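Interim report, section 4.2 (structural modelling).
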Amino acid sequence: MGSSLQAPESGPRVTCWDGTSEATLEAALEPPATQCIEVGLAEKCKEDLDQAVEPGHLSLVVTTRSAYKHCIVKVFIHAMEHRTALTEDLRVRIYSAVQEALMNAVLHGNLRIDPDTRGSLDGLVAAHDAIESKLKSSDVAQAPIRMDALWDASQLRVLVHDSGVGYEPKAVQSRAGEDSMGRGLAILQAFSDNVAILDGGTTVELEFRL
Amino acid sequence: MQIQVDRGAGQISMSGEFTFTDHAPFKQMVSELFATTGKSVILDLSKLDFIDSAGLGMLLLARDEAKKNDRDLILRRPSGQVKRMFGVTKFSTLFTIED
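Predicted structure of the assembly:
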């Protein structure tokens, strides 16, 4: 179950997720929560905790292991739907684009899996073996991934931040549509109204007009 | 993602969501490609609700594995988000897609 880390006068706003299931994440993200942090990450995210999260902002920080194992994006979007109206078309576009950004953050940001290894069946099997092996390391499994949704009457922005070393955006743009990474970028561009690669490639910002 | 196999009809039906973490049912699906009879194998996508770029990449791997075994992979009845993803990534240039 979600539990409160702090309880200001307006009620619990920062909650803690136990990392066990989508159901407990859903509970932890229930309004009036504005920020939810997976258990064990509070110390690592102290700076983030100190930044007040305003209304019209929902923030979620999870471990790499949880982002890989659970359907985080689906629950996060459901939590947004509890706070602002989304049409079915917009919900599909947000889910498609944010899922792409999150898996990119997990696989290439935090786990540093080479996208070229998945071009064959043997490569795919090797990639999954490498992921399971990397997740045995606590440092890798516990590396945070942060998602922020910020909205007003006219637009919604979703930011996905990883803990990796970043990349050169132009290197991916030149491969648009050609391979898995190029397809991923094409999907971000097609389903959102604007894509920005920030912080040296460790943050993706997706903008949707409401 | 779940799969349902009709070997006699040469058809595999996919349902649910097909993303990067679905490599286990995907491997099962690829082994079924070789177990079906006939030259063409149909992947019925009418009950597939969601796919990401990794799922698209796995479909391409399935196509390549089918070719190695002298089979053609046909994608049938994609709808909703899956159909939109095929449009965005121009999948119709890479597969035979039937409505």
